[in-house]
Amino acid sequence: MTAETPEFIRTTRTSYDAIARPYTEQLADWLSDRPLDLALVGAFAELVRAGGTAPVADVGSGPGHVTARLDALGLSVFGVDVSARMVALAREAHPSLRFHVGSMTALDLPDETLGGVLALYSIIHVPDEYLPTAFAEFHRVLVPGGHVLLGFQSAVEDERMHLAERFGQEISLDYYWRTPDTVAELLVMAGLRLHTRVLREPADDEKRPRAYLLAQKP
Questions:
Q1: pTM for this model (two decimals)
Q2: Alpha helix (H) ranges present in 2-151?
Q3: Is the backbone of residue 66 left (phi > 0), alpha (psi -120 to 50) or beta?
Q4: How many angstroms separate the CA atoms of 70 and 43, rounded?
Q5: Is the pLDDT of residue 2 over 50?
Q6: How far is CA 131 from CA 5, 153, 182, 185, in A?
Q7: Contact 203/30 with Cβ under 8 angstroms?
Q8: Is the dihedral angle over the CA atoms 26, 174, 88, 151 positive or is it negative?
């Protein structure tokens, strides 16, 4: 962490460090009972495989269960997360996979080295002014033809929510709920071509619709 690290990264890191263990225990593998979401991840994996052997970054990898699914689907994949505690738990649960601490706004990766970027429910903590930077980073690190799959809670109109407690722990997390149109426009502005958009209604205890956007670097 340096003086240049944005404040939202510091607060997100500290908050997820604090709740890493209960988060991992309670949300061990949320994809297992979400067949549509799982199918979209599978389709992303197929598209990446069809484009070559370049690796995939699971950005905002948390406890690593989605990273492990991508590995099981035959991808060369690694996880990136702002929380050192989350990274430690992911390494503990999946010792054969690679995880490291990092931010989507400044990926420590060379240009045009990834076949895919997956970011499921991680852009929700990125403020509006930093989201174009993150998408520019996705574009930078992708090989031509590489794919991005985003998943996020959708909203009728863009809004922000602050959470000061979770799992009985004091935290400071901002959540940004955005419309699919807002996010799609930023992807296109970053030089990515929109491929598919999916919006599903809330399931079980979910309170908001889930949006998925698949885009490709030309």
A1: 0.95
A2: 7-26, 35-50, 65-72, 84-93, 131-141
A3: alpha
A4: 11
A5: no
A6: 15, 15, 11, 11
A7: no
A8: positive
In the beta sheet, which residues pair with residue 193? Answer: 216
Q: Are 215 and 193 in contact (CB under 8 A)?
A: yes
Confidence of residue 207 (pLDDT cuts 50, 70, 90): very high
Residue linked to tokens 């309170």? 207
- Indicate the residue type of 122: S
User: Among all chains, which residue has been given the structure tokens 């998408």?
Assistant: 135
**Residue 53 DSSP SS3:** coil
Q: What is the mean pLDDT of the chain?
A: 95
- Phi-psi bin for 39: left (phi > 0), alpha (psi -120 to 50), beta? alpha
- First-residue to last-residue Cα distance in the chain: 34
State the DSSP string of 105-120.
TS--S-TT-EEEEEEE
The dihedrals phi and psi of 109, each to the nearest 5 degrees, come to -140, 150
Residues 119, 214: Cα–Cα separation, whole Å = 11
What is d(CA 181, CA 183) in angstroms, rounded to the nearest whole number? 6
- Cα 122 to Cα 137: distance, rounded to the nearest angstrom: 15
Residues 145, 118 contacting (CB under 8 angstroms): no
